[in-house]
Amino acid sequence: MKPWQVDQLDFAPNTKTPEQLFQRFVSAARQLGFEFCAYATRLPLPVTKPRLISFSNYPLEWRRLYIERDYLSIDPTVRYGSRTSITMIWSDELFASCPQMWREAQSFGLRYGWCRSSFDSHGVCGLLTLARSTGPISEQELRDKSIAIDALTHAVHAAMTKCLMHRLIPECTAKLSNQELTVLRWTGEGYCSREIAQLMNIAERTVNFHATNATAKLNASNKTAAVMRAAVLGLLY
Which domains does the chain have, with CATH numbers? Predict the structure, then answer.
């Protein structure tokens, strides 16, 4: 794969939906020698149950079994991928905790895989997996393709996050004023409106005005929820 092909994935004018974007990633995966591609992303809101969205060209029956048997809850690539961005190569050792799942995946041609996670300032975690039915991933292949796959991982995550966040979490683009941000930061430190007014040298009603505006912009139910949303989305820093 040529570097420019990876770079252009995020800027194609005709890729308007996540599904269209994913098909471009499938094509890139095939150029790298992998017949299967999957991408899963965990959005930061709602906090109590973060939304998980996934795309793949895995066999339909395997996808059905994965959901039916709740393999998401025991999948080690998901568990490790949610904590670190290290490269994971599928192996018996990686799937030692879930041998049945591993056997069934292999029966559908999902035998050799390469996973990598990405994280960003909005609190979004994405996991890209490239897989195939034949040909183990050698050390030489790891060396030869690691740069291209790293670039693809970041391109997939950036493009999908941009597309999904704007559609599903419009609060991520909220334009908060400097005073609104300052009020939220002090609120997050545990200060009340009266104390914040003293710290900012403004009237208490002005503090409440900014807090109300920020709460509305973030589609939050109250000031505390607004602080939480702003923090999770990386807007306070």
Answer: 3-170 (3.30.450.80), 174-232 (1.10.10.10)
